[in-house]
Amino acid sequence: MEGAVRMSNVLRIDNLRLKRGAREILRGVTFSVARGELVALMGLSGGGKTTVLRTIAALETFEAGTIDVEDVVLHAGRSLPRATVRELRKKVGMVFQLHYLFDHLTALDNVTLAPLHVAHVPRDAADRRALELLESLGVAHRRAAYPRELSGGEAQRVAIARAMAMDPPLLLMDEPTASLDPARRFELGQTLRQLTAGGRTLILTTHDDDFARDFATRAIILSEGEVVEEGDPREILTNPQHPATRALLQMQHP
Amino acid sequence: MCAVRAFLLVLLLAVPASGDGRVLLWGGDAEGGAPYCEADPNDPSKVVGFDVEVAAEIAKGLGRTPQFVQVAWASIDQSVQRGDFDIGMSGVEDTPARRASLAATIPYYEFTETITVRQADRDRFRSLQDLRGRRVGTLGGTVAYETLLEAQKTLGIVPVSYDDDVHPYEDIVSGRLDAVLLDNIIATRAMRRTAGLYTHYDRPVATGHYIAILARENTALRDRVNEILKARMRDGTLERIYRKWEIWDEHQTGFFAHALADSPAQPRNRATAQPKSAAVLRYLPSLLRAAGITILLSCLAMALAVTIGVVIATGRVYGGTLSRALLTAYVEIVRGTPVLLQLFVLYYGLSAVIKLPAFVAALIGLGLNYAAYESEIYRGAMEAVPRGQLEAARTLGLTEVQVFRYIRGPQAFRIALPPMTNDFVALLKDSSLVSVITVVELTKQTQIFAANIGSWVIPGILCAALYLILSLPLARLARRLEEQWRAPSE
Do residues B355 and B472 share a domain? Predict the structure, then answer.
């Protein structure tokens, strides 16, 4: 059983250490994610959740350990080899907390940019696929809008479509629930479930234990740069073992 | 150095004379130098020269104390008319336009317009006719320049206008010019300073006179000055001064006799003053041509500035430590020194190494200067594009070049457009500085125009109108582009 899980692992992080100046941000993070999982990375602010995502997306270098995404391996060092990063970008998509849509492009052009210039898909095929994506996320009617004209929820869905357009097996999302009201949050959960049902793997960071309980297949609690607890969210978030997990729940439900 | 001295003089001497009737304020340009008027090498707070001594004689005759006021030579006419000083004299030429618009005294010195050439060309170029199709330099706004403009029409000479009388002679030696046409006094001075020149003193192109000028309504004082000048001619004082400054020659004897016979000498090289409307028509084509040079120079210089500015900004944002340091040094040096100095260095300073044509030097000088400012705008604009968007583009698999081309560049350009438009309008006006390296553009042509008709009103209005015609459509185009890119809403 354990062998079977390992074989279908999309991501393996082994003893990841990351320093910025004198500050140790990650102190030996280790975990794996299997295909089709929806993992919630949780913990108080400053625990290192976002840094873990950024490091998986090759936006940060690190001091020790390895990151393996479907056999593309990032090693510790002062810089990441360009060829490796190029391969990794095909495997990992990222949706940022502030979305960072390209301000000068319409929603549709945001989505088609990478297919056109990275994958060299012809324009009409790229447009068709982008429209499908926007349609499935319920924002096709906003295709001609510019980012500043979109609501927070719309911008988030365009950002998901943009990341999905390159069809990465692993999708990272930083704090997707942060600015959503309960109804929107539920919609997002449904959408993410559809994605994982299609064979995609998701890792998201969140403070929201209700969301994690409802939609995540696993929760990983980070505190002071270390994994302190992990498991079925319904279990560990209901019956927390570690003080950091308890503190997190305290924050959410004072 | 000359400029420093002149500046000191302004500080020390140009203190207004508090309405004291016992002081005679007289204006001249100490940059003009000896023998006319220059700062005393032994005491730079004083000026010396034959004009200085003639002014002193006039003051003495009036029972007043002479006090010198520094004024740019090209502005003497306007300055005396607006009352900055009582009398202007500093190699001021007798022209019909001056006589028409100011109170002019009788001439006090007769000079000849002489041709100076390279020693080797002394037998080849002996007259204006010999110089057909050649480049001939002179001081802008002078009778000599007018003469060259006429020769341009009749003989196909290429007149080159300078702001000073030192560089034209150096440019003969360097080969930028084939000859200089200027007053014999100036030629003599240049021969002393610069080796390898020959002046055809015995073949004068024209004869001219120096006069003193007063405000138009100041005829009473002018008449008293005339009497004093005549008396000093009669008693040999002027001759003594001219001999002292080594400018006495056989011309003066006849000229004095003529002047004392009370028939004011007329310049023999020019027709009588034209009515102003005719002058406007005569100068309009050359003003339009000068406006063409201004817009052409500005557009090309801006294109150069934008290109180099993008390279510098990109180098400063993306480059390594060394290239960043070098580019920063370039920007700081160029921004920290006057563009006027840069033009001088480029045109005259480098002429031993490379002889750039004036227009090319002007283009490069303005282009390199503005490139420093543009690069700062672009650097700021590039850094204003949110880092998150760049990272988002990277996670999508775009290379750094693609991130620049599709995300950072287009957004930075939008941010940079308004300050760029502003800079282009500034460049359009700064292009007037290139007249110091002999390019006659709109402002210089206007100055020449104004000097010749003796008024700034019509030339000034025409010049301003032309600048506005050039800059307003540009501002409108920029605004339209901005609106277009701002896209819906907002």
Answer: yes
